[in-house]
Specification:
hydrolase, single chain, alpha+beta, seven-stranded mixed sheet, four-stranded mixed sheet, OB fold (Dihydrolipoamide Acetyltransferase, E2P), nucleotide-binding
Length: 301
Amino acid sequence: MNLNIQDSFIPFGSIESSIINVRVISLSDDNNDEIRELDCICEDTSKSYRLKLEGIWSSTPIKIGSSLRVIGAKMTEKELLLNWENGVLIVESNVLVPCTLIAQGISCRRKATLSHYFKGRSSIRKEMLIGSVVHELFQAAITRSGFVVTENSLLDLWRRELHEQYAEQFFALNLSFQEVEDELCVYFKTITRWVSTYMSSPKGRNESLQTGSKITEVMDVEESIWNSCYGFKAKIDCTLKYELSKYFEENFYYFKFPVEKKNGEKKLIPIELKTGKSNPNTEHITQVMLYCLALASKQRF
């Protein structure tokens, strides 16, 4: 089935989206793969509901005693309906799952689960260390007051502050100082170009992003958000404040936020840095969308 996300987008931050916490007391014996019915008790009011799960939600792994959070369901006096068009179901929302793990599960659930439980056994790779250094350089470039971002200044920052911090790990990978710098030089150009183009004065020219919006302020780096409503936690590389443009209004109208967006209004946006040869894919897009949801919940879009 092809799902049009524009038509099914739910305004999660809206007070109009009902949120009901229930506990499952019985499961239907019907083996219908398309529809599943559960008898539930509301944890807040003790009211009984028949919860009907259709489409994608019918295959959700649920057992008696499971705690469910039902968001935006189609409601009657005694029934809750979740399907392609209505609502979201969160199982055991008190267990916070990392956004990266959820994103990995888009392509392969087995891979995501194994990487989570055996992450301590994975060896450090060159690409991971280079990525960590690039993250620190980029974050310093956009946050440090008075730091003029050029390729030479980034190289100097790496040599003065970061080289000693990572020296032992690169040595363990049998990488020389020069080999590491050769890898980093590629990113010096990219960081310098991005900062000089999009950051506000005095760091850059403050040109418009692809959406027509402009960055006004760096709010945080490595920001951690624990969202108990949706049951996930996020660690965002960079959180920026940007000024909403008329272009955004005209081209992203389908995101039906409960608060009307006005031209010039300031909102938050996440930046997720990806290094190496990886191209944007569904996993990356999912991760950023979850970060957007985390920030939207934080600031009550």
